[in-house]
Amino acid sequence: MAPASSSTHSAITLNINGEKYPLSVDHRTTLLDALRERLDLTGTKKGCDQGQCGACTVLIDGRRAVSCLHLAVAAEGREITTIEGMAEGDRLHPVQQAFLDLDGYQCGYCTPGQICSAVAVIEEHAAGWPSAVTDDVRPEAGPPPLTAEEIRERMSGNLCRCGAYVSIVQAVARAAEAHEETTKEASA
Ligand code: FES
Ligand code: FES
Question: Where in the cell is it found (predicted)?
Answer without folding.
Answer: Periplasm
